[in-house]
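#struct-queue
[09:14] JT: dropping the first one here, sequence first, then the structure tokens:
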Amino acid sequence: MSSTSRVTAALSVIAAALLIAGCTSTPGSTAPTSSTEPSSPAAPGQGADDDIEGAVLDDGRMFAVVTQGSSTCVPQVSDVSAEGQTVAVTLADVSEDQVCTADHAPRASIGALPEGVDPTKDITLQITYGELSDDVDLDGDPRRTGAPGSATEYAPSAGWVDDGMLVLLTWGSSSCPPVVESVEGSGAEGTATFSTDDTQVCTMDMAPRGTLIAFDETTVDDDDFTLTLVGGGLDGTVVVRG
């Protein structure tokens, strides 16, 4: 598995915003999130499960950090640096004035591994999020061929963050993240079906989107697991790495 401790919750949604029409592909970054159920977001590490999880994605170029809190107020990776295989990651809320839903769910924040880190070897993420800090140990995998700092191929990728829970990395409009309609899985295979809404308006950026997908951990085998993506313009298969 990707880390020493695991989260046990449902899937997360990165963002939802109404901006300008069109979902074309031009480079960009994840946009701030908003909510239709405003509330005051809890401060990091207060009144929440402080466990932090992680995964290596994009064949070794990217990583995900999973925290707990409002599903519509996903913290952003604000700073990343590395010394050898130890990567210091700082997370920050988008804005103190941001309104958030009052739910409490795992959220996936996506960042790029610094150049010089070897994704085929074990990596330690040292996470700082407000007053909260934690270390996340990620297993090396010799099958990873993407070097941090190299150009991405914009292909979907996924990694396990818990027993039965994975984070899926996709690329597209930051304001139109994938929305999971249903999930089913057994053994080393699973299927995630996404909603398709051709009328949705989207920003014209190309950003990494992290979506958490949970299976019944008693029915799936995380070794060499293949995830089939259906709908939402994501049709294809992804081998989920540990």
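[09:21] JT: and here's the second one, same format:
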Amino acid sequence: MSDYDLELSHGMHVVHDGPRQAPPLLLIHGSGASGASWNPVVPALADRHHVIRVDLPGCGQSPPAPAYDVPAQAGRVAAVLDDLGLRHVVVVGHSSGGYVATALAEQRPNLVDSLALISTGPSLDALLPQPLILRVLLGPPLGPVLWSMRSDETIRKGILATTTRPVDVPNDLVTGVRGITYRTFRKMAHQHVAYVAERGVPERLAALDEVRSLVIFGAADPRWEPSSAHRYEAVPNARLELLPGIGHIPLLEAPETTSDLLLGFTAEGADNPPASA
């Protein structure tokens, strides 16, 4: 896959794939990751869409930011879309990237046509204990030291600890994760907790009654209680897809299934465009 275009916009590294005149599709990665986490699904998506990927501040190739609260992150993403002159964007968020995607729809419903959330925990009570390797890397007092000493193999093991099947971890994802400092990761994690503690994601989506939603969840997710995904079924205009045998990163574990679900979702939206389109 070759990148269509690269730029730095509003403090974020932005990658474009696919034709600019195609319907826009924005991909937002989770914490401890980068836009490279989408590599396996981008080729299929870029056949039909102008795919925009961002490295959130402090992640991948983006510089750190003064603050990492979720509404501020969403505001930066909105500014990128405004600069591109885009409206009615399909926004896809993986894990905590789903919080940024949801906040974007809350702030700027004129920008967001529909939302797809992948492995986005609905509320804090659904969070499972961290895998051991992540507890070691993140816990005091040795966390900061061990984090700074991470090898590429350790980073791969940390990513694979949240999957349920062997996967190829893209080299540029490892590089992007390496650039995340311990301080940045902890700040981001704290703000993600604050966002979902204030109001659960299903409740937030229910208030966005004009926005269609697709929720993709691994039925064997080791990060979030998989049964908690059913809470999204109470959201109007939302559809839940549970993937048997898949963990927390469907875009790496089941890229074909994930891209097919996303393309089917965007096609449904094209058949039923918003009234203001």
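[09:30] RK: nice, looked through the second one.
[09:31] RK: The chain is about 40% helix and 15% strand.
[09:31] JT: good to know. The first strand starts at residue 5 and ends at 9.
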